[in-house]
Structures are given as structure tokens and as C-alpha cells.
Amino acid sequence: MAVYIQSAAQISIQSPLCDDWFTNPILREGRYFRCEEPDFKQFVDPMSARRMGRLLKRALASAKSALVGYDAPLDAIVTGTGLGCIETTEKFLLAMLKEGEQALPPSHFMQSTHNTIGSLVAQHLKCHGYNNTFTHRGASFDCALQDALMQFDLGNISSALVCANDEMTELYFQLFDQIGYWKREEVKAEMFHNAQTEGSFAGEVSATFLLGKEKTNNTLCRLDGQVLMYEPGEARVREAIDQLLKQGGIGWSDIDAVVCGYNAAKSNDEVYGRMVNSLFPDVAQIYYKHLFGESFAASAMGYYVAAVCLKRGEIPAHLLFKGQPVTPKHILVYNHFQNKDHSVALLSC
Question: Given this model, what pLDDT does residue 340 score?
Fold first, then answer.
């Protein structure tokens, strides 16, 4: 059964809650960037906002933005997050060390659990239906999306918010830096086309997608299906793509572009280069992490970029990793995390 991406909203290191990145991207050079945040007073009253961590405010703002113009009941909220509200968790743990486990702030404790994000969004939207959170590092959003699609297939829901939310603190940046997760030098745009060293640059993402069963005038695109795989070889990936193309009623030659999660890390990018160049040697490739950075929620931006390209009927030059500009009708989104968790999805206009 086809599911439609009705709308989407993002808060990231690009301009928030808009698609300025499509025509006027902010190209950054560095190692670590925090989100460009909107005016949260538009989405939550200041008294409530005082008790919320940054990630919760971002999640609520992106969710409410994705629902602008939508007045039907919302059946489900599914969230993917690798670290949860890590900034609030740090504050709680540091306070526990400092205060000797006495007089600890309860709000920091309550916000330290990963499913706080989906719960808060549900409370503010008064959505009391299906609510689930997935935390599987870089595959968190892909798992959340898969769960939502399963609920649609089972006939349990007719609408859903699927969210991706992750933040990066200075402390966690330093911890990940010790295991080589980030580049030792400032990341520049040209590194994405010829990755010679390991590591990427850190970003943050809060993205929300509204899914529904009916196509409207404002619909971004159709989501024909998604397949998750663990440590697949090329034959398994080819089989998964065959399955998606059959679901979408198209052939291999109908794929106009493939979205890939190139992030300037040598081992990461070699997987995409080897797999996609073998399966789609003459198809345009789109990349996006040079705009949004790397995070456990970054894969959601691959879907976001594909959906906007399909809606607008073009692929801007700054998103083209390889190939020539085309008017896309069918885009394949391919992500992997550490060459273990792989996912492919087919989006069509």
C-alpha cells in the first residue's frame, strides 16, 4: 500500500523550518555545528519552554510546523533518536555528582529518557494513539519509518508523524572525537568528493514527516516502500531494490537519482561508491550531509531532500554528487550505518 509524505519540517544547521537550503544553502567548514533555532515562542509558551531542553523544543516546533494546514485526527507518532535528550541527561548526571544525589531537578530526570520526545509531542498535539520510539544509533529514523509503514499496512492507522531528533553536546563531541568519529581537521566541501581520511563533521537534526494514505495538492511525494537490511552483500541490496521497484510498478531504468549518505569519511563513502556505482553506474547521485552534517538522525534528511526534489521537480547543482541534472520522478534513498544497518526506500512523485 502506498503512503504519502504530506509535509515535512526541519531544524538543522541550515535555516530552520524552511527550505532555503534548496536554493541558498549555508556551506560550512569546520568540525561541529549546532542547530540554527527558530523563535520557539511561536510554538510553546515561555513558561513551559523554561522547563524544556533544546531538543524537546526543536521536536515540538518541527512537529507543529509539519502539521500546519492539517486539521484531521492524527493517529500515531513514531520517533527515531540515537542519543535522546543528551544535553538534559548530562545536566542531571552532573547535578547528581555535584549535589551528592540530593535535591536533584526532577524535570532533568524525566527528560533523560529517550521516549520523552514522542511523549511531549503527543501531549501538546493531544494525540493519544500509537506512540513508539526507536533508538538504534544511525538507523533510528529508518526503524521508526519502518514501524510506521507496518502500522499503515496493518490498517491500524491512516496518518502518522514520523520524527528524527538528535543533538550533539560539547562533551559528547569530545567523547566521539576520541574514537575517530570526527575529522581531525576542518571539513571542507571538496573532502566529500575524494574522502581520504576517516571522520565527518557533527551536526544536529530535528525533522518531522507527516504521512497519510491520501494524496492532496500539497503532498510532497509518494513513499512506495522501504527495506531494512543487516550487513547485506550486493546481491541482497539488489534483491531489496527489485522488491521496491515491483511495489512501485517501475523498472530499474526508471530510477532518476539515488540519494546517498556520503559524509567525507573514507570507509563510509567507499560503501556507497562501491554499491551505487555498481548497481546504478549511469544514474545521478545526490548527497546531503555536506549541508546537514553527521548525526544519528542524519539519515532522515536524505528522505527530506528526496521529497523536496520530487515536489519541485529538480535537483539543484549543489546536491549533485555525480551525474547530470534531471527532472526526477523516482528517487531511491540508500543509507547505511557503519556498513551494518542498511536501508533502501523508493520515493515517487
Answer: 97
Determine which helix (DSSP H) or strand (DSSP E) holds 58, and give its type and residue range: helix 54-66
- 27 beta partners: none
Residues of the chain below pLDDT 50:
none
Distance CA(320)–CA(338), nearest Å, equals 23
In contact, 308 and 22? CB cutoff 8 Å: yes
Fold of 3-212: Peroxisomal Thiolase; Chain A, domain 1 (3.40.47)
Q: Is-same-fold flag (3-212; 221-348)?
A: yes
Angle between helices 299-312 and 140-153 (to 10 degrees): 60
Q: Are strands 257-260 and 130-134 parallel, antiparallel or unpaired?
A: unpaired
3-state helix, strand, coil in the chain (%, to 5): 40, 25, 40
Kindly report, residue by residue over 218-277, the tens digit of the pLDDT: 999 999 999 999 999 999 999 999 999 999 999 999 999 999 999 999 999 999 999 999
Q: What is the mean pLDDT of the chain?
A: 94
CA distance 256 to 320: 12
Question: What is the spatial distance between Cα 159 and Cα 161, in angstroms, rounded to a whole number?
Answer: 7
| Residue appearing with cell numbers 556551506 | 27
Is 27 exposed, middle or buried (CB count within 10 Å of its CB: 0-12, 13-18, 19+)? exposed
pLDDT, residue 68, reads 95
Entry pTM: 0.95
What is the structure's pLDDT at 95? 80
What pLDDT score was predicted for residue 97? Answer: 80
Residue (of 296, 299, 293) closest to 259 by Cα position: 299
Q: Domains of the chain: which residue ranges?
A: 3-212, 221-348
Instruction: Tell me the CA distances in angstroms from 2 to 142, 150, 222, 244, one per residue in order.
Output: 17, 11, 7, 11
- The closest of 34, 36, 26 to 202, measured between CA atoms, is 34
What CATH superfamily classification does 221-348 receive?
A: Thiolase/Chalcone synthase (3.40.47.10)
Amino acid at position 202, single letter: A
Distances (CA, A) of 156 to 53, 75, 221: 32, 9, 22
**Nearest partner of 254 among 225, 280, 287, 285, judged by Cα:** 280
For position 275, what pLDDT does the model report? 95
